[in-house]
Every structure is written in structure tokens, then in C-alpha cells.
Amino acid sequence: MSKELYSSMDAQNMAKLVDAFYPKVLKDPIVAPFFIAKLGDDIESPAWKEHLKLIVEFWKFVALGYDDYTNNPLQPHLAMKDLSREAFAQWLHLFHETIYETYVPFAGDYLRDKSSEIADNFMRKLNI
């Protein structure tokens, strides 16, 4: 049975995207260490649950215009040691892969473009 692909974004399927993405992050040898250092390796922990909730709010803000996200998304990255272009590229690879496992191409293209734009902006501000 094939997985349902969404043709439009809403709050519910935005949460499904985030929930499908972060288990991949925890398995990835390049990006997992950054998250494990901050949140641990148990995605069911309270720290992870809070992070996932925050990230859903971030993507709802970016993609849907919701105003529940008021944090500075760059701030946590400023304190990360050894953050590299390779890590950003791998994060984007995993995220883009998950986007197209969640959304039909024309719906996913918007998130792909926005995530790439955000990563480029972060790397520029982090001087990497």
C-alpha cells in the first residue's frame, strides 16, 4: 500500500513532515551528533518533544503564515561547535527527501526552496 502524498500544506501534515524527518536525523552520522549533544538520543524525551513542537511551529510560520513561532531560529546554531557546510548539506538532503515522501512535487517544491534559502542565510551569518 502506498503512502498518501499531500497536495497542499496544513498544520496537521506539517507535523507529519517533522515527525518523519527527525528520526532520520537521529540516524545520520553527520547531523545526529549536533542534535544528540543538545537533546539526547531519545526522540521520546521531553526535550525532543519540546523541540519537535517548536519546529512544527517554525515550519507553520514559514510555509503557512502562522504567527505562533516567535523565536530566533538562528540563535541555537550560533553556539554549535564544528557546524559545517557538509552538515547543512546533509540536513537539507534529508529534509528534501522527507518533503517529497510527504508532499506531491509541486507542493514540496515550496518547502524545498524555503529550506534551501534558510540554510544559505544561516551559513552566511555563521560564516561557514
Q: Topology, please?
A:
Layout lengths: L10 H17 L4 H8 L6 H19 L10 H4 L6 H18 L2 H22 L2
Helix pairs in contact: 1-3, 1-5, 5-6
Describe this protein's structure.
The protein is mainly α and 128 residues long. The protein has a single domain, classed as Globins (Globin-like, Orthogonal Bundle), CATH 1.10.490. The protein has helices spanning 11-27, 32-39, 46-64, 75-78, 85-102, 105-126. The chain is globular. It starts with 10 loop residues before the first helix and ends with a helix.
Specify the overall morphology: globular
Count of distinct structural domains: 1
Q: Please, what is the oligomeric state?
A: single chain
CATH H-level homologous superfamily name: Globins
CATH topology term: Globin-like
> Cα distance, first to last residue?
43 Å
Total of helices: 6
Structure described in brief:
The protein has six helices and no strands.
